[in-house]
Amino acid sequence: MTEADFVALGGFVALFALMLLRVPIGIAMGIVGVGGFAAIVGPTPALNLLAQSPIRTITDFNLSLIPFFILMGVLATNSGMSRELFRAGQAWLGSFRGGMALSTIASCAGFAAISGSSVAT
């Protein structure tokens, strides 16, 4: 076994030990990830990664759009647009077998057309 294999095995053991100590999974994975990276590459690059990774994640353009999609959802709900989209889908497709599922898909397609993002719906 190589050094990386021992680090991986120790990481799994440390992860499960931290979970048994009731450390939240995200924090436990972060501790084990930074510790494993420090064991393989060195402590200085691991600390640099720990310092730069949150800033890189927060300043990502794709994540900056999330509040606007939440705002669009609030506006769609409060204006009754989402209810009307579902009612239109129910009127058109409700009589078919699986009409509830079909009308849900149709209302999602309508919301995707309105918001401009098919991935977000």
Comma- or semicolon-separated keywords:
121 residues; mainly alpha; 81% helix
In short:
With 121 residues, this protein is mainly alpha-helical. 81% of the residues lie in helices and 0% in strands.
Question: What does this protein structure show overall?
Answer:
With 121 residues, the protein is mostly helical. It folds into two domains: 3-59, no CATH class; 64-115, no CATH class. Helices cover 81% and strands 0% of the residues. It contains seven helices and no strands. It has helices spanning 3-20, 25-40, 43-58, 61-64, 66-79, 81-93, 99-115. Helix 1 runs antiparallel to helix 2. The longest helix is centred in the N-terminal third of the chain and has 18 residues, at 3-20. The model has no long low-confidence stretch (mean pLDDT 87).
Over the alpha carbons, how many angstroms does the gyration radius reach? 23 Å
Percent of sequence in beta strands: under 5%
In the predicted model, the low-confidence regions spanning at least 5 consecutive residues are none
Distance between the termini: 46 Å
Q: State the domain count.
A: 2
Overall shape: it is: elongated
The count of strands amounts to: 0
Task: Work out the helicity level.
Answer: over 70%
pLDDT averaged over residues: 87
